[in-house]
């Protein structure tokens, strides 16, 4: 035994475990490689970084607040009508202490608020086989950025 322990899974990953696959991609290097392969620009350096991705360089660009009264169902319905709903799987990062996951898109859409609220420090979510991406900030504004409209 080499002393390595499996990563501790947070409550959301445990709750939706049957729809999730833990990926062997290491954070942050492997995740940065994935973003590079999808040609998604990252914020270079900022002491006040709110996002992992540089949304000033991503087009098209859409944003909305996601932690407002009534937003849970509005965003769930919007994601269900968006281009994202045609993707089979999404890849989501949970930061330095957690694994990257692959989640069934329909499960993510149904429980997007579980996934967003369980990610400490915000989260980037990318479509596995597409160039669709979104990012949840974990700050006072709680912004959902995306490169596709969420009607």
Question: What keywords describe this structure?
Answer:
alpha+beta, single chain, 151 residues
Give an overview of the whole structure.
The chain has 151 residues and is α+β, with helices and mostly antiparallel strands. Helices cover 25% and strands 19% of the residues. It has five helices and seven strands. The longest helix has 11 residues. It is globular. The N and C termini lie far apart (51 Å). The model has no long low-confidence stretch (mean pLDDT 89).
List the helices and strands and how they pair.
Elements: H1 11-15, E1 20-22, H2 29-37, E2 62-65, H3 71-81, E3 89-92, E4 101-104, H4 105-110, H5 112-118, E5 123-127, E6 133-136, E7 143-146
Antiparallel strand pairs: 1-4, 2-7, 3-4, 3-5, 5-6, 6-7
Mean pLDDT: 89
Give the class from helix and strand content and strand pairing: alpha+beta
Kindly state the percentage of residues in helix: 25-40%
* Domain module count: 1
Our estimate of the beta-strand percent is: 15-25%
> What is the N-to-C succession of helices and strands?
HEHEHEEHHEEE
**Major sheet strand order:** 1-4-3-5-6-7-2
Give the radius of gyration: 15 Å
3D shape: globular
What ranges have pLDDT less than 50 throughout 5 or more consecutive residues? none
How many β-strand stretches? 7
């Amino acid at each position: 035994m080499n002393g390595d322990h499996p990563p501790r899974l947070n409550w959301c990953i445990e709750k939706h475990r049957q729809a999730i696959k833990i990926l062997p991609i290491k954070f942050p290097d492997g995740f940065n490689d994935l973003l590079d392969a999808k040609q998604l620009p990252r914020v270079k350096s900022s002491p006040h970084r709110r996002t992992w991705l540089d949304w000033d360089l991503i087009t098209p660009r859409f944003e909305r607040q996601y932690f407002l009264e009534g937003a849970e169902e509005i965003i769930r319905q919007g994601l269900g009508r968006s281009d994202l709903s045609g993707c089979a799987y999404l890849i989501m990062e949970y930061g330095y202490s957690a694994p990257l996951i692959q989640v069934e898109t329909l499960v993510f859409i149904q429980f997007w608020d579980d996934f967003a609220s369980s990610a400490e420090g915000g989260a980037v979510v990318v479509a596995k086989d597409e160039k669709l991406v979104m990012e949840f900030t974990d700050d006072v504004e709680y912004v959902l950025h995306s490169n596709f409209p969420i009607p």
